[in-house]
Backbone:
């Protein structure tokens, strides 16, 4: 027997939890599916910008006190560093602090809010197939669930995204998606002078450019030691080197002794490939599943929260005005909020990376040193990536009501 819901949400990360919290808060019957159970490991720098904190308040009703108590918030600082191949370009102080969360606790808290509002949490279910036309979701083992709508928030390796079909049929260009999919590696290292240890405490987030090609590296405060990672396009120039070898080189640059013994953890990351049409039939895609990651600095949490909430608002519109209205409203909200940031961020990324590869560090130095206050405001969401214009964020039906 097929169990039916008003909405099935696939993936209980920030995007899926945001969608489920909004929809369950409107009294709908929501099934929140995930292959694992919280708390679960998650590769992520865990950075929260000011716009992310505001989104958490609007979508989940969570403030900093709740995040510190049960959501993994462990550190904040207004300071930041930009470096090029190990050399400092800018040491800045933003008007608002950057905050850091431990993702297993953070994701668990967001899901608990959705459940408290009435969503049915369905962990340990692996989705094998999704039908965008009917809303049918088939799980490993043969169980079938059905939703009047399905929100796919199941990450960069999304199963639900396959239901969009090919580009010819109005879906997405899978070859183009793969070309713009980045490889990311991240580790959390203990502080110390021994093999595989990070040589100094890290209290200020660092963004490293210049390695790898068409990508960046980061060193962030972590709950158990510094988090070190790199991200770059799989098709970027590597001189024939393996991405893991590039990461080990980055660790050596940072002063890590004998990094060969460090266990590496990698995952794919959308990197300038946000889908033009992230909806089809009864299916809407949010977060990494739709490619919604900011491609210059790699911010993902805010865009997951925003697109999850926007997809939920689209569904509410579709339930009221007919199935087709869901995609229209979702597209409208994306066009007014998220999409311009991703488009202009991607343009800026390619301009800066091209300049670094062909000219050197001068362009990126000029970029970060010309107006550090405006740059920080851009990251925090007070200004747009579009020519540093002032930015306001619009929210749809059911969000913050």
Residues:
């Amino acid at each position: 027997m097929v169990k039916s819901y008003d909405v099935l949400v696939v993936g209980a990360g920030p995007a899926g939890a945001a969608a489920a919290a909004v929809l369950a808060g409107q009294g709908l019957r929501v099934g929140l599916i995930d292959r694992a159970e919280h708390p679960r490991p998650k590769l992520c720098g865990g950075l929260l910008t000011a716009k992310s904190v505001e989104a958490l308040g609007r979508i989940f009703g969570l403030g900093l006190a709740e995040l510190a108590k049960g959501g993994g918030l462990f550190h904040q600082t207004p300071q930041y560093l930009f470096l090029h191949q190990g050399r400092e370009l800018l040491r800045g102080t933003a008007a608002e602090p950057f905050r850091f969360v431990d993702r297993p606790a953070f994701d668990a808290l967001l899901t608990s809010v959705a459940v408290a509002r009435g969503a049915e949490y369905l962990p340990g279910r692996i989705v094998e197939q999704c039908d965008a036309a009917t809303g049918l979701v088939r799980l490993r083992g043969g169980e079938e669930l059905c939703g009047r709508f399905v929100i796919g928030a199941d990450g960069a390796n999304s199963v639900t995204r396959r239901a969009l079909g090919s580009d010819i049929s109005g879906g997405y260009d899978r070859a183009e998606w793969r070309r713009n999919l980045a490889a990311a590696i991240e580790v959390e290292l203990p502080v110390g002078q021994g093999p595989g240890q990070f040589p100094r405490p890290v209290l200020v987030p660092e963004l490293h450019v210049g390695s790898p090609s068409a990508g960046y590296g980061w060193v962030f405060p972590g709950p158990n030691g510094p988090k070190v990672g790199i991200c770059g396009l799989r098709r970027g120039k590597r001189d024939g080197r393996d991405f893991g070898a590039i990461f080990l080189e980055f660790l050596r640059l940072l002063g890590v002794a004998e990094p060969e013994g460090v266990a590496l953890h990698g995952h794919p990351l959308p990197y300038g490939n946000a889908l033009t049409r992230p909806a089809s039939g009864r299916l809407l895609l949010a977060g990494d599943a739709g490619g919604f990651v900011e491609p210059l600095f790699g911010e993902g949490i805010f865009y997951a929260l925003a697109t999850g909430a926007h997809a939920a608002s689209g569904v509410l519109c579709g339930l009221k005005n007919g199935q087709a209205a869901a995609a229209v409203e979702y597209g409208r909200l994306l066009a007014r909020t998220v999409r311009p940031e991703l488009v202009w961020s991607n343009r800026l990324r390619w301009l800066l990376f091209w300049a670094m590869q062909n000219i050197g560090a001068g362009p990126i130095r000029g970029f970060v040193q010309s107006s550090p206050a405006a740059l920080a405001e851009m990251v925090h969401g007070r200004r747009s990536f579009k020519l540093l214009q002032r930015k306001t964020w619009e929210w749809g039906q059911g969000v913050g009501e």
